[in-house]
Amino acid sequence: MEECTFCKIVKGEIPSSKVYEDDQILAFNDINPAAPIHVLVIPKKHIKSLIELTPDDELLIGKIYTVINKIAEKLNFKDSGFRVIVNCGKDAGQEVEHLHFHVLAGAKFGDKIV
Ligand code: AMP
Ligand code: ZN
Fold this sequence. Notes:
By secondary structure, the chain is α+β, with helices and mostly antiparallel strands. Helices cover 21% and strands 22% of the residues. It has a single domain, classed as HIT family, subunit A, CATH 3.30.428. Strands 1-2-3-5-4 form a five-stranded antiparallel beta sheet, covered by helices on one side. The longest helix is centred in the middle third of the chain and has 17 residues, at 58-74. The radius of gyration is 14 Å and the shape is globular. Zinc ion binds at residues 4, 6-7, 46, 98. Zinc ion is lined by residues 4, 6-7, 46, 98.
């Protein structure tokens, strides 16, 4: 089976513009940004989507949020604010089947769905 795009990015087989990396988590700029700052934060481990999470992943997912805060500090949008979005499945329009957190910043987002 063809490996997913984000697993290839983790392995360095597809180039990415990295923003943060540790042993479990990688963050890189979205190739088609929807905001002035659009970072994708992913677990290095292949998890297909939010709905596939298990209790074993709870620490990892908590860590993703503290990594997002580190990125907010590093890229200087901690005070101006930001939005985090996770698309899960068909109706949400999830295109890449490897769990990812969209972090959007650098603009005032007018259209609030929730
Ligand atoms: P989603 O629709 O939530 O699955 O979002 C997938 C996101 O991945 C989109 O915003 C794409 O622009 C982004 N994307 C797809 N391929 C790449 C890539 N090779 N490098 C960076 N971002 C990518
Ligand atoms: Zn993957």
